[in-house]
Specification:
13 helices; globular; Arc Repressor Mutant, subunit A; alpha/beta; D-Maltodextrin-Binding Protein, domain 2
Length: about 325
């Protein structure tokens, strides 16, 4: 839930107050924040108090020298943090303009791409000259959409579904999800892991029920598979490492599975097709720089090279793919 400020509140805030609050959140204390900003502790305390007065609610609980964040303070920080990031980028871009240097590049990405394939694409583009400042913001899909729609980021990689009028989709990728098991698990010897192998085993999967976790649940239900237990997480990397620790069988999206190999983990296809969909997006109507265009093409190229079963769809296929993949249990396809 966002906190909405009226014009009178906004008019009484200044950037120094927001910077002070962000520093307290980063440092964990007033003393540490004052040290970070090179200001006196009383001066920083006054900035926080003035901000609280203009907002009409407390940001911090105070107990002697210790401070903790209020619930509203946490919610407000979620609004402040991207603003401060945008201001940092604005300063960098102003400096670049003054020095006739290329503008910085800001990328928002789900973790699956950010940890493996995205750095590999950037390495290839570096031969053509990346700007001095490159920002990669790793976020959940909803935050990626927000960052690109508000033009905090110039390009984003997000999972489907995605439907926002402020975004332009350049292409959509599709590939089947896979199983990740520990190298010493008996299932690691199989060329293809049957979904039925999860009967009586712990399933490791994603927590978000509105994205491809729903597809996993539908597939299990259709196949009559009942895991003995479930461990869910918000990142595929955590799911893979949990499987590596022998906690169960992970069903994960293929981007991180093939894009960031992990020693001690075996990746295998499963006998039911559970599609993972993602899209490359930019702000609607914003002209593409050659660098962003190269990144869009480079992401498609590395996906073809790295991910078995990768299919690239045009943006016009979004509605059909969303309906096919997220519409019903019948969309789950039996594999060979």
């Amino acid at each position: 839930m966002s906190i909405t400020l009226d014009e009178s509140m906004a008019s009484h805030m200044d950037l120094r107050q927001l910077e002070a609050f962000a520093a307290v959140m980063s440092a964990g204390s007033i003393t540490g924040a004052a040290r970070l900003l090179g200001r006196s502790q009383p001066a920083l305390t006054r900035l926080i108090q003035d901000l609280e007065a203009s907002l009409g609610f407390d940001l911090l609980h105070r107990s002697g020298p210790r401070v903790t964040t209020t619930e509203k303070g946490l919610r407000f920080y979620q609004e402040v943090e991207p603003v401060m990031a945008w201001l940092r980028q604005l300063r960098e871009r102003a400096e670049s303009i003054a020095l006739d240097k290329p503008r910085s590049l800001s990328i928002a990405s789900i973790a699956s791409f950010a940890v493996g394939m995205l750095p590999a694409v950037l390495r290839r583009l570096d031969a053509a000259g990346l700007p001095d400042q490159v920002h990669i913001r790793t976020s959940i899909a909803e935050q990626v959409v927000h960052n690109v729609a508000t033009q905090v980021s110039e390009i984003g990689i997000t999972s489907l579904p995605v439907d926002h009028p402020a975004l332009e989709i350049h292409w959509i990728g599709e590939a089947p999800c896979v199983a990740a098991v520990a190298a010493d698990d008996p299932l690691a010897q199989a060329d293809r892991i049957p979904l039925a192998a999860l009967n009586g085993r712990r399933l490791i999967t994603m927590a978000n029920p509105f994205r491809w976790r729903r597809r996993v649940d539908l597939a299990l239900r259709r196949q009559g598979v009942t895991p003995a237990a479930i461990l869910d997480t918000n990142t595929s990397n955590t799911a893979i490492m949990s499987a590596r620790a022998g906690l169960g069988i992970a069903i994960v999206e293929p981007v991180i599975a093939y894009g960031m190999p992990v020693e001690g983990i075996v990746i295998r296809p499963i006998d039911v097709t559970i599609s993972f969909l993602w899209a490359v997006v930019t702000p609607n109507g914003r002209p593409l720089t050659p660098l962003v265009s190269g990144l869009i093409d480079g992401l498609a190229e590395i996906s073809r090279e790295t991910i078995p079963g990768f299919v690239m769809h045009p943006a016009t296929a979004r509605d059909r793919l969303t309906a096919d993949v997220f519409g019903s249990a019948e969309a789950v396809v039996d594999g060979p």
